UniProtKB/TrEMBL annotation:
<feature type="transmembrane region" description="Helical">
    <location>
        <begin position="53"/>
        <end position="71"/>
    </location>
</feature>
<protein>
    <submittedName>
        <fullName>Putative membrane protein</fullName>
    </submittedName>
</protein>
<keyword id="KW-0472">Membrane</keyword>
<feature type="transmembrane region" description="Helical">
    <location>
        <begin position="77"/>
        <end position="96"/>
    </location>
</feature>
<keyword id="KW-0812">Transmembrane</keyword>
<keyword id="KW-1133">Transmembrane helix</keyword>
Length: 101
């Protein structure tokens, strides 16, 4: 993951996980993509900002996934996914990724 911001990995996991689930019509495959990206992002967060920040951002990642579902009923699926992915990426930048500069 050298050089790739953890927030980008996390946002990609949220977007990619939804895309895989939608296009394959197999939600578990989307879950695999979501979980794999989350694990990689968590390692990046831990390496850059420590265990506490990694735990907080991992919790946000899971909350963003869960929160995208009710949000999708209001704004649509893709806008919801892009919105929560952007929120996770922004939080990651503020709390961890900018430390890598």
């Amino acid at each position: 993951m050298a050089g790739v911001p953890a927030g980008l990995v996390a946002a990609g996991g949220l977007i990619g996980g939804y895309g895989v689930a939608r296009w394959t019509k197999r939600r578990p495959l989307g879950g695999v993509a979501l979980a794999a990206a989350g694990a990689v992002a968590a390692k990046g967060w831990r390496d850059k900002a420590g265990n506490g920040t990694a735990a907080a951002l991992s919790g946000l990642y899971v909350a963003a996934f869960a929160g995208s579902h009710p949000l999708a009923k209001k704004v649509g699926a893709w806008p919801s996914v892009f919105g929560v992915a952007g929120g996770v990426a922004a939080a990651s930048w503020v709390l961890a990724d900018r430390r890598g500069e």
